[in-house]
Amino acid sequence: MPRFLPFCLLAGVLAAGTAFAQEPAVTDDPYFWLEDVGGAKPLEWVTAQNAKTDAALASTPEFQRMEADILAILDSDAKIPAVQKIGPYYYNFWKDRNHERGLWRRTTLEQYRNPDPEWETVLDLDALNRAEGENWVWHGAECLRPGYTRCLIALSRGGADADVTREFDLGSRQWVQDGFFRPEAKGGLSWIDQNTVYVYTDFGPGSLTASGYPRIVKRWRRGTPLQEATVVYEGQADDMYIEAEHDDTPGFERDFVSRAIAFYNNELYLRRADGTLAKIDAPNSASKSINREWLALELREPWVIGERTYTAGSLLLIRLNDFMSGKRNFDVLFQPTDTTSLAGITWTRRHLVLNVLDNVRNRLEILSPDQGSWSGSQFSSPSGFSTIGVSTVDKDESDALWMTTTDYLTPTTLSLYEIGKGPEVLKTMPAFFDASRDVVEQHFATSRDGTRVPYFMVRPRDLVLDGGAPTLLYGYGGFEISLMPNYSGAVGKGWLERGGVYVVANIRGGGEYGPRWHQAALKQNRHRAYEDFAAVAEDLVARKVTSPAHLGAQGGSNGGLLAGNMLTRYPQLFGAVVVQVPLLDMRRYNRLLAGASWMAEYGNPDTSDWAFIQTFSPYHLFDPAREYPPVIFLTSTRDDRVHPGHARKMAAKMIDAGQNVTYYENIEGGHGGAANNAQAAHMAALAYTFLWTHLSK
Question: Taking the model in full, what pTM does it have?
Fold first, then answer.
């Protein structure tokens, strides 16, 4: 099945017929020069800021202990090695202190059940980097069945989104000489058969969308030049992403073309043997997935068919052949309520597993076809705040699931869950911090328009409600992404173990209550996400958990835009703000790297949309005459998704106005901010040291 655009692509494009205004005059921005990512002058500025930050925060014994503690957690051999079944083996990608860039390795299920499995190394990225003089970062592998002798491996320089794809022989554990190779770009290769692939990448001028993603997908035969590959589908310049994929499920082999027009706006086509396309004529906003004979549709808007209306957030199921022949006799397997939403679906050989959220708490519903209808059972974690995650082991062969359970204070457990038999615990992560003194609670704040906004709070059991607790409030609020409880050794060691309160706000723009929660904060309604976050901050103060002088805000990417808005719109609520890999200049965001792909979320600043966008553009909201809380900006030079110029320009603007600004830019790392565990530990320690410095006074 097509991958249907993971969140890492984000997305969004211009609405049809939208009029363009003149491009913003960049010469009016005195900090425009900082958008030159690799320019000598900007990098000189970055180097100077990094040196100041390290001198101020990283030179103390306390910092060095925290950094070492976090690095030890990230490098720990006791972490759970997540595995993927490929043929008879179970593969894992692993990084530790001895393998900075990582090992791709494999074992058997029998060995994996052991506390200390024996692993067979397939590919050593550190050795590869030494041999090739590169800084490759693992981006994954797709292996061709049924033989599983050849794989397409994606590697990124320094962690950027752009990567290369190379063909690898699993038998010899060598790169295939003159094998399939895709030069560095955003895109990919996917198998059709051993001698044919689909390729979607940068083919030269005009072959990418305005967002910098593939606009054309081709069919490429082994032994022929890439430029001779045959065009399968060509999208529009203002589409987001075009790809194709071969479904190799035995007995259900077929090909698909996916056209992503915008975020949650896509078309899916069946590609016939003669190369013609047949559209799967479901709403563009619906998530479409196909497994064996079934077509599943997750609706994001109401869908009227005849006299029946299917509600947004529902899951519909129908046989694909019936749907393509014009039938619309859906089975409705899930309908949302005021408190429930569908977090995801997973297929096994004979079952469909629904992951349902009820007031941001998980349960699984296991459905099975029974004489033309679907019957089911439920599974809930014994811990009320645990997050349950499931993925299939081998959906064509078994009814087994990998199941993880975790919460803020309980180390993650991995089980092998055979439907009908129950879970078998295979691995449990060790405790990386002392959680014995803490408790987890869920509360609700009331936003400006009366909406109840849930949030999780992790606090010391004996917390005194006097407003003095150093408290870190984290949020995201975008792209229908839900923030669920999870165990983080870094948060535990860097914040909780030292007595801090940790709060996660489930604000609008996210997916905690399904599509309606996301859609409530789009474009001109973006302010609702920020009002929700501010409401949680105010609730913490009202309940005397903390006070503004002791309350910090943190967010990254879209959450960095959130943190930037807390800094500029609500400075009175916070004592310190952490802004990571952020969007901040919303006047130019759509013209920087992948920014054009997010206009369905934020709007198009080159049109009249700028009237509302400027109300949440931190770069433009900043007032040099106003007093702001101390802020640290953390970003990456190699981030080719969110341009580092956002953080650079905002920091420089505030520094020149005499504000309390700390800045650090990692030279590698991509949008994740770090390319290895040491870099990740350093940046985490910077953030926590900054917060403790300002919030514990």
Answer: 0.91
H helices present in 570-644, as ranges: 599-602, 610-613, 618-621
536-567 confidence digits (pLDDT tens) = 999 999 999 999 999 999 999 999 999 999 99
Q: State the total domains in the chain.
A: 2
Q: Which entry of 341, 415, 557, 597 is annotated as an active-site residue?
A: 557
Kindly give the pairing relationship between strand 277-279 and strand 89-96. unpaired
Is 671 considered catalytic here?
A: yes
Pair 511, 594 in one domain:
yes
Q: Are 105 and 112 in contact (CB under 8 A)?
A: no
Give the containing element (helix H, strand E) for 491: helix 489-491
* Length in residues, the chain: 697
Q: Tell me, yes or no, whether 406 and 488 share the same domain.
A: no
Alpha helices in 543-615 (DSSP H): 558-569, 599-602, 610-613
- Check 139, 518, 671, 694 and give the catalytic one: 671
Neighbours of 615 (CB within 10 A): 16
pLDDT digits (tens, 9 = 90+) for 182-201: 999 999 999 999 999 999 99
Q: Is 620 an active-site residue? A: no
Q: What is the CATH number of the domain that holds 500?
A: 3.40.50.1820
390 and 355 belong to one structural domain: yes
Cis status, amide bond into 382, omega within 30 of 0: no
Among the three residues 431, 462, 493, which one is the final residue of a domain in this structure? Answer: 431
Please tell me the distance from the alpha carbon of residue 449 to that of residue 521, in angstroms, as a whole number. 12
Domain enclosing residue 599, as ranges: 43-71+439-695
Does 129 reside within a domain? Answer: no
Q: Is residue 310 part of a domain?
A: no
